[in-house]
């Protein structure tokens, strides 16, 4: 059997560079081969088309429009794709690349020819909400609000330059954005979490490089009478039992855990979920993970491994 050939289109971006880093040791072991283009050919449409049609699996780390163009350029029916952009996350026929989303999802990813990597924020939101909605503990039409704070690398090369470049001293220490409530991740969250109503999603950037804390508040008075924090926690714990990359913390009652560190899992492909409760009928669902790990390059490599093992 020949060594799989993997082409990373957009390999000089934040996600592409991290994928290279994660695969470097395996290239040295010759578990796979990486197809790369010289710097002067990275924007050459013909050279990129030739490369993508010559590989076994292409990983697209491109802006949405460029990712669509790359897929359209594929004429080799044997080429499989992992798209790390948001271009195909709600497109019929593409397999959503969140292996822990359901019992069958890892198998679907393994056999797919087209896999769309989840967005960073949706990974946490869907990871928390989908099991609870599917189990009927949270109604599909519940008025969901999601707040998330990411490291500035989530804003791509421009944001990294703002915080690490010559004008870094003027960068904001914290900023809430997406105030038009039209963030591009919202339809993705609604679809894959199984919600019938559009959730309210408010993202933010902090003055640190990477890592996410995402929270979803719930009011028990709006749930069925038999649903409490213990039931919500048990559902998540059962869903992710045995999952290699998703951990569910014990049910938390303050002050057992005084704070959540968004950088706690940086450099890993892991996600840590939590359920916090008080005596006033309020519950807070939480997710901590690396926006460049489980939220981007780590997830892409996880999906790559599943596809190569088919």
TrEMBL record:
Its main location: cytoplasm. The keyword Cytoplasm applies. One of its GO terms (cellular component) is cytoplasm. It is found in: Cytoplasm. Pfam families: Semialdhyde_dh, Semialdhyde_dhC_1. Gene3D superfamilies: Dihydrodipicolinate Reductase, domain 2 (3.30.360.10), NAD(P)-binding Rossmann-like Domain (3.40.50.720). Catalyzes the NADPH-dependent reduction of N-acetyl-5-glutamyl phosphate to yield N-acetyl-L-glutamate 5-semialdehyde. It is an enzyme of class 1 (oxidoreductase). Keywords: Amino-acid biosynthesis, Arginine biosynthesis, Cytoplasm, NADP, Oxidoreductase. Pathway: Amino-acid biosynthesis; L-arginine biosynthesis; N(2)-acetyl-L-ornithine from L-glutamate: step 3/4. It catalyses: N-acetyl-L-glutamate 5-semialdehyde + phosphate + NADP(+) = N-acetyl-L-glutamyl 5-phosphate + NADPH + H(+). Residues 5-109 form the Semialdehyde dehydrogenase NAD-binding domain. GO terms for molecular function: N-acetyl-gamma-glutamyl-phosphate reductase activity; NAD binding. GO terms for biological process: L-arginine biosynthetic process. Belongs to the NAGSA dehydrogenase family. Type 2 subfamily. Its EC number is 1.2.1.38. This is N-acetyl-gamma-glutamyl-phosphate reductase. The active site is at 120.
């Amino acid at each position: 059997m020949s060594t799989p050939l993997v082409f990373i289109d957009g390999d000089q971006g934040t996600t592409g560079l991290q994928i290279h880093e994660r695969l470097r040791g395996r290239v040295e072991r010759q578990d796979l081969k990486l197809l790369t283009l010289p710097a002067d050919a990275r924007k050459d449409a013909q050279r990129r088309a030739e490369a993508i049609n010559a590989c076994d699996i292409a990983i697209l780390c491109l802006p949405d429009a460029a990712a669509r163009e790359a897929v359209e350029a594929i004429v080799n029916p044997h080429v499989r794709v992992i798209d790390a952009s948001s271009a195909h996350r709600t497109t019929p026929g593409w397999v959503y690349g969140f292996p822990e989303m359901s019992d069958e999802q890892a198998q679907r990813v393994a056999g797919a020819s087209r896999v769309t990597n989840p967005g960073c924020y949706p990974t946490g939101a869907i990871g928390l909400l989908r099991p609870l909605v599917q189990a009927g503990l949270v109604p599909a039409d519940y008025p969901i609000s999601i707040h998330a704070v990411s490291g500035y690398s989530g804003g791509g090369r421009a944001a990294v330059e703002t915080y690490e470049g010559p004008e870094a001293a003027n960068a904001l220490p914290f900023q809430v954005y997406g105030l038009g409530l039209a963030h591009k991740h919202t339809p993705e969250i609604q679809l894959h979490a199984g919600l019938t109503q559009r959730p309210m999603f408010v993202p933010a950037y902090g003055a640190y490089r990477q890592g996410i804390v995402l929270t979803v508040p719930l009011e028990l008075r709006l749930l069925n009478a038999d649903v409490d924090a213990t039931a919500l926690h048990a559902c998540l714990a059962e869903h992710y039992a045995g999952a290699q990359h998703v951990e569910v913390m014990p049910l938390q009652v303050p002050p057992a855990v005084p704070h959540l560190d968004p950088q706690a899992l940086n450099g890993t492909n892991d996600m840590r979920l939590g359920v916090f409760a008080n005596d006033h009928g309020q519950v807070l669902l939480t997710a901590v993970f690396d926006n460049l790990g489980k939220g981007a390059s780590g997830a892409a490599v996880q999906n790559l491994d599943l596809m190569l093992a088919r």
